[in-house]
Amino acid sequence: MIELLSNLKISVPDKIFIKDPESSKLGKRIIEYSILLIDEIGFDSFTFKKLGQKIGSNESSIYRYFESKHKLLLYLSSWYWAWLEYQLVFATHNVSDANEKLDKAIEIVTRTIEKDSNFSHIDEVVLNRIIINENSKSYLTKEVDLENKEGYFVIYKRLINRMKDMILQINPKYSYALSLASTIVESALHQHFLKEHFQSITNCNDEITPYNFLSHLTLNTLR
Amino acid sequence: MIELLSNLKISVPDKIFIKDPESSKLGKRIIEYSILLIDEIGFDSFTFKKLGQKIGSNESSIYRYFESKHKLLLYLSSWYWAWLEYQLVFATHNVSDANEKLDKAIEIVTRTIEKDSNFSHIDEVVLNRIIINENSKSYLTKEVDLENKEGYFVIYKRLINRMKDMILQINPKYSYALSLASTIVESALHQHFLKEHFQSITNCNDEITPYNFLSHLTLNTLR
DNA sequence: TGAAAATGATAGTAATACTATTATATTTGC
DNA sequence: GCAAATATAATAGTATTACTATCATTTTCA
Hints:
The structure is a homodimer.
Chain A: H1 25-41, H2 48-55, H3 59-63, H4 69-92, H5 98-110, H6 124-139, H7 144-149, H8 154-170, H9 177-197, H10 210-222
The structure holds a DNA duplex.
């Protein structure tokens, strides 16, 4: 996908973990297989005990990396948004035309992810499915304000802000740039979900993509 | 709010419950206080045991109405969308101008709910908060396809379809009417959530409402 | 090579999400 | 007004979850 990034480490707020999973072999296995297991059985049924069994490791060892499965989800979520942000920054960096730039950004955040081998132990295609199915659970909690203060959502917010800037470059007088940016990103996930599970309330299918819908929506609004 | 509805019973798919909570005093207390308790401690911490304590009733009695707390959430969600649907139908019924009609519909699905005393034991203001905070959890599960087949989401889908029809009345050639309708409804909830917890990524606040943003978005897109 | 760090194994706890059984109220139909 | 039916309450029990704590073993690396 973006070869430039091959040696780059995706950086996640360090309060999310107890011990950086990137710092050891076990840590990387935890990330790699938690993604596969959550995709397989869903976040609600996912436990550290089951993950331990899957990777032939001990439950207590996993607790040395993450204080709870919720923190692990926050980690995966931050990692995903950081990864997307890099894609977005590189893909739009040299685009001078504001409309083209935003359109490219929309393409990045709405597209169906394809195999990316830059970060060997993480399967971005599967992670994308997890984000579609589980991401809301990372912030729809009673602790959200506290966790927000701790900085657990900075990367996501930064991504939205980047999109807001691109929107304002097209139309500096548009009053809802932040809301539009957050709606594009949320709606992209939602339309992908509907396409899989509620086909009767979306136009998205094999031919029409969330990108088609959202780029059309955005460009018409800012026109 | 809409006085015509005073004697109407909101109808929820009957596979969701074991025994209709509307059919007894205890049932109504379960609904009334589950809304208050979920709002208070969040759905994740909510248990039937705690609810039993709150209403001075027994955990096992609650299980005779709902097989799990997940089913109770599905009930509350269906009830909410059915209630909204009635509001929408009555508010738009006599509006002949297509633009005005859709605008009214957007107003209904985006507005901050105010006290409605038509259904005495249900506090719609609090229920609306629950929908904003917990609704996604009702369908972001591994069982969604099965539950969808069982008809647990018909009311929500019907509401989206009503909005789609209104969109197509304005512009019959618009290709994304379903996606736009589902986006309006989801984004309304999401913007309300952001307004409460992530003010830095929304333009919505005390002056600018999700209605302002979404009606502007919709009318420009269909123009 | 020896100390420190990481991991594994085991045990334990309080809470969750139920099911089952039996006892006690309450409703209702005659 | 009373018996039968129905609803609710009380109690107990189970497997699982979401951890914490302790101690043993293995790996790392200075």
